[in-house]
Give the backbone structure.
Amino acid sequence: MKRIFLTAAALLGTLSLAAPLSVKAENSASVRRLLETRECFGCNLTGANLKGAHLIGVDLRNANLKGANLESANLEGADLTGANLKSANLTDAFVSGTSLNNANLTNVDLSNAHLYNTDVNGAVLANIDLTGADVFNTAISVGGEY
């Protein structure tokens, strides 16, 4: 009886790990491509962990970064035109000279982020969190003109 229980537990443990690993493997190939080539036009980075990444000047136009972790990432000069950042974490991110034109920023956490000279023309800015954010020369305002 003990042997059957251990076999079943091992099998279930293996199966429960199989699905997340395949998703992570798919994203890690795109992450690797991004970090090596500095571009990932239209790639799928859904849920990718880019915490603290130096993404200065990267090309992420039309990339899918839905739910990605960009906490403390440096996005200076990055091009995220048309990117999907829905529910992404940009807490403490440095977003300077960045293009977020036509990007989907719905439910994005920008708390304590630094947004300087960032283009957001046509971006969807619904339900963003700007708690403690430093916003300068960027067309995002709360309760008035920027």
